[in-house]
# Entry
Amino acid sequence: MEILWWQILLLTLYSGYQILDDIQFNMFGHPVFAGIISGLIMGDITTGLIIGGGMQLTILGVGTFGGASRIDANSGTVLAVAFSVALGMNPQQALATLAVPVASLMIQTDILARFTNTFFAHRIDTKIEQMDYKGIERNYLYGAIPWMLSRMIPVGLALAFGGSVVRRIVHYLNGDLKWLGDGLTVAGAVLPAVGFAILLHYLPLKKHYPYFILGFIITAISVTLFDGLSSVGTAVASLDKKFDMSFSALPMLAIAAIGFALAAMEYQRTSQAKVTSRSLMGDGETKSDEEGEIEDDEL
# Structure
């Protein structure tokens, strides 16, 4: 199928919005939301969830500190979902061949947007000296334009004119270079594990390893148990037509709730320990402790 003009328009507008959401509101500016919205626009939310969720897991351990730029996972997700649905690409293959490379290339447009914004920053400095409050507000809002264009222009051009290029790539990957296409599909499936590894590298795992082990065991046991119940329910339903009860797999919300409960227990324990230690120590020791070295779990 071809990407229709209104789909190109909506995806381009969303690519401009998502960067503003990412740097200001931080509500829907994540790859998983980019996958859902792109999937809805393209008419295949399943593919959007697979690519968006995979990209979200891939960048779990990737962050931006200070004024540093990072890969634009949202734009990569938008293009990967659009071409995956339009050209019938394997979602894992689209994740490896489109989402990650595009996200890395978009670092350059991010830097360009930051440089362009200095023009409006200098104008704001001038307006401050002139006590022109309306001018300050206008130039502050103008600063959103470079950010939006830095995503809208590349995404719009890629969607409008890049279909033929991607189609040729898909043809070769699934034809003459099938071995490479299969390898990239496997690489796309492994990328979320890489994101987890990066995240675990920065987490204070040595200090809280019991919770990590406990969470892994609870998840493994629960998934196995619910999968077994689902299989039993399917078998019984095939034998007895009156048996209409359905068994569903363990929802991720339940696993997230277990993790939240364990995190809350740890937070309460550490908070109580700090209150107790402060009550036992003098004011001088408390002050020196507060101004001391930052613990690894506070980084």
